[in-house]
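fold-stage: in
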Amino acid sequence: MRVLIVEDEADLAETVRRAFVEDGFSVDVAADGESGLFNAQSWNYDAIVLDLMLPRMHGFDVLKKIRAKSTTPVLILTARDGLEDKLKGLNSGADDYLTKPFKLAELLARVRRWSGAPPESPRPASSWATSRSTRRRGSSGRRGSRSS
């Protein structure tokens, strides 16, 4: 099963990528909205994990453009935890919405639900915590990268 992670925070992207790989997924990572959209429109994915606060193109804009051409399940993974943001994401075509901080086991379970992967994994329920004060970092200028 193949997953695209669109996340500009490098440490978080690597943690999520590693969790999916250990769970048997093939994973591509994009560090900004434009690269994420390019990957989403260029390859077939079983699921997309999409941050909202991205450099080069906001996550809501990425989602809108993905939905114009694809029904690939999209899970928004973001620090934006307000009800209005959640409703906007779900009403814009996201299949699910998970806020940071989150448990990796929960993220994997939500994505596994769409991918046809087995419903359970032996991974421990580790978590990823982000500080809202350090959440936004400038663009590192990285383009999307592909890894398996």
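fold-stage: in (second)
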Amino acid sequence: MYAVLFAIGIGLFVMAAILGLRESQSLVAVVFGGLSVASFVLFFMRQPVQALEENLEFTIWLGVALNTYGTQLMYMQDSKTIQADLRVATIDYSNMVERCAEEALHLWRIEEYHRGLKQFCSIERAQHRSAQAQRNHIGLALRAFLRLECHRLRTGVSWFEAKTAIMRETVRAYLAQPLYVQLSTA
């Protein structure tokens, strides 16, 4: 479907260009050009934009390049100061890219925090109806995550390794002195 829509758009564009070269059929060229634009808009609207959403660095670079650097280059007209202007524009561009990369890193850390809170502290698994019980569960999950993060920063042990070690030691201690003994069914 996408290939057909793209081919129709290219074909209509070529038809509009050919008809536009003839002066007597300019209205027909406008119609074909409009249909070409419509097919391209449909093609690109139907395409998923997930690749751009996933590739945050490319999106940031594209926005910075189009909005600042290209605009600065466009307005450089004085031949005597063009080298200095180009140097300033390039420095501004690189500083802005660094700031955008730092912001993306902060956003990624927030995503890591949410993943850790859900994956290692089971914050979403509270099956309580009362508001007090839900608040208690959320508070304890946040406290557990804070303890895991402090432990990670102090020792360098990842969240996964720390949780696994806690679970392993808990099971080992219980098996050494079980509180509940299963009765024999035989």
